[in-house]
């Protein structure tokens, strides 16, 4: 059984990278700076921004781990070790 959530048709897995994450973060900043928002909308958008920032932090930390591992394998410090599938 595959419990992995399906992405909307307009979002493909290839679109998930640090560049698009950066775009999403700046889009969120734009939404937070929208002076036409009501107080209720500001509260809602602030909660959304906190959620986006939390997820972004996890993604960036994961990327740092992958980069560190890639450097290790690139420097041949792990001679004979099998690369994790994520790095292939």
Largest sheet, in brief, is:
none
On the 0 to 100 scale, the average pLDDT is 81
How many angstroms does the end-to-end distance come to? Answer: 26 Å
* CA-atom Rg in angstroms: 18 Å
What's the number of structural domains?
1
Architecture overview:
The chain is mainly alpha-helical and 88 residues long. The protein has one domain (17-87). It contains two helices and no strands. The longest helix is centred in the middle third of the chain and has 36 residues, at 39-74. It is rod-shaped. The two termini are 26 Å apart.
Q: Secondary structure elements and their pairing?
A:
Blueprint: H1 18-32, H2 39-74
Helix pairs in contact: 1-2
Quick summary:
This protein has helices at 18-32, 39-74. The chain has 88 residues and is mainly alpha-helical. It has one domain (17-87).
Descriptive keywords:
88 residues, 2 helices, rod-shaped
């Amino acid at each position: 059984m595959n419990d992995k959530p399906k992405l909307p048709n307009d979002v493909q897995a290839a679109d998930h990278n640090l560049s698009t994450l950066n775009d999403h973060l700046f889009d969120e900043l734009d939404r937070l700076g929208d002076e036409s928002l009501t107080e209720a909308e500001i509260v809602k958008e602030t909660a959304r921004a906190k959620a986006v920032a939390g997820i972004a932090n996890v993604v960036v930390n994961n990327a740092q781990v992958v980069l560190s591992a890639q450097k290790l394998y690139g420097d041949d410090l792990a001679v004979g070790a099998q690369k994790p599938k994520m790095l292939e």
